[in-house]
Amino acid sequence: MDTLSGLRSDDEKHLSLHSTKCPVTVAAMLPVLAVHGGAGHVPKERAEISCAGVRDAARAGYAILRAGGSAMDAVVEAVTVLENNPAYNAGRGSVLTRHGHVEMDAIVMDGRTLASGAVSAVKGIANPVQLARLVMEKTSHLCLTAEGASEFARAMGIQEVPEESLITDYARMRWRKNLQPDANPVECQMGKMGTVGAVAVDSEGNIACATSTGGMLNKMEGRVGDTPCIGCGGYADNKVGAVSPTGHGEAIMKVTLARLILFYMEQGKSAQEAADMGLAYMKERVEGLGGVVVVDPQGVWAARFNSLQMAWAAAQNDQLHYGLYAGEDFSQPIEQPEQNSQ
Ligand code: ASP
Question: What does the record list as GO biological process (predicted)?
């Protein structure tokens, strides 16, 4: 089991103070934001692009938090940055369906009110996460799908984009490869770049999550994965914390992974312990692999996965932490400029 948690040696001191509810120490842990760029197997030549992208997204979300912005604004911004980055399986860069189309899923959740919004199998828009937020804010529903989601996007004045603009050469190459009669579907899924997600706690203690994906490679048309399903592809509750998962959607749905991890936290487990327990249960019970980013209300974060890799980054106390492989935790000051990030 990998990898890291916001609970480090100097945080242990903070944590003991948390248990005595010291407001000064809690304030020092907030705000915080953690993002992931998908669990799986990132090909070697794409590893650095994948890490740079999550660092960019973490910086963008954290800048909003540092300026006093809300956790919801921060997670939507971080996920928008990742959707716009063709290195990830979300927005531009999404994987293709069996028939070669892009159908995207996204969710947001506000831990203050438990309000949530999602879209599934939506086509022809650049930023499904922003449409999911509009579903939350402007409708009485939790999820809109397919043509209904597109109609709603038009009504909200969201610009339609040509499908071609969402499809990268890499996505098309992998789609073709997976259509070959001798294709190994497991191997093909492993090569895929990731779904994206973010969790955050703002300076007011409000918590939010957002997740966005193109889904599984060569999925059937109309397939709805875990991402837009509340409690599976994301959950946020100010009283407990927030989770954004990635991995095999059908497995995540069977164990309602996001809510399962928060349940373990309600039982007194730390963010890291709860993440490990949820991922271990999914592996043992339904043979599912994946990863998560998690935060708790005090600002303790964790980035954990049982897949080979998961690009992740977390920002707290003006420090940026990131990693891709098991056991990695690189860190640098948050303002350090990114070189060759695309
Ligand atoms: N969970 C996503 C889905 O099944 C895929 C992923 O996270 O890589 O749609």
Answer: L-asparagine catabolic process via L-aspartate; proteolysis
